[in-house]
């Protein structure tokens, strides 16, 4: 089965957490667990840049308007770097991926989803 979204989010209101899944390839995804406090922090500050610690993972998320140095060519992408135990995974998403992520989070927060229980 192929994954068709670059970022998928499940908000578990009864557990006060979200599962956020990043697509790596058509057949591989990686899922992280975030507290509601940290997902809201990330969604509020990703355009200017934010770093935070969640479950012993260190996160850095920022909308970038230029590519790597020394070229510094004009670009538009969201950098999401997640580190733990000396290893870092660097993801690149489109600006629209994160706009959709914001909308999806607040939709799930304000509506009852089929996986919600005890809400």
Describe this protein's structure.
The protein has helices at 36-45, 95-110, and strands at residues 7-12, 17-25, 28-35, 50-54, 57-66, 74-84, 87-93. It has 119 residues and is an alpha+beta fold. It has one domain (7-110). The strands form two sheets. Strands 4-5-6-7 form a four-stranded antiparallel β-sheet. Strands 1-2-3 form a three-stranded antiparallel β-sheet. A hairpin with a 7-residue loop joins strand 5 and strand 6 (74-84). The longest helix has 16 residues, at 95-110. The relative contact order is 0.18.
List the helices and strands and how they pair.
Blueprint: E1 7-12, E2 17-25, E3 28-35, H1 36-45, E4 50-54, E5 57-66, E6 74-84, E7 87-93, H2 95-110
Antiparallel strand pairs: 1-2, 2-3, 4-5, 5-6, 6-7
């Amino acid at each position: 089965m192929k994954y068709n979204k670059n970022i998928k989010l499940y908000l578990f209101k009864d557990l006060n957490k979200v599962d956020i899944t990043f697509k790596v390839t058509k057949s591989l995804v990686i899922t992280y667990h975030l507290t509601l406090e940290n997902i809201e922090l990330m969604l509020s500050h990703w355009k200017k840049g934010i770093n935070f610690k969640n479950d012993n993972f260190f996160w850095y998320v920022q909308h970038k308007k230029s590519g790597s140095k020394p070229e510094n060519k004009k670009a538009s992408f969201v950098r999401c770097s997640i580190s733990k135990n000396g290893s870092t995974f660097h993801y690149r998403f489109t600006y629209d991926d994160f706009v959709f992520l914001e909308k999806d989070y607040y939709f799930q927060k304000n509506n009852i989803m089929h996986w919600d229980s005890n809400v």
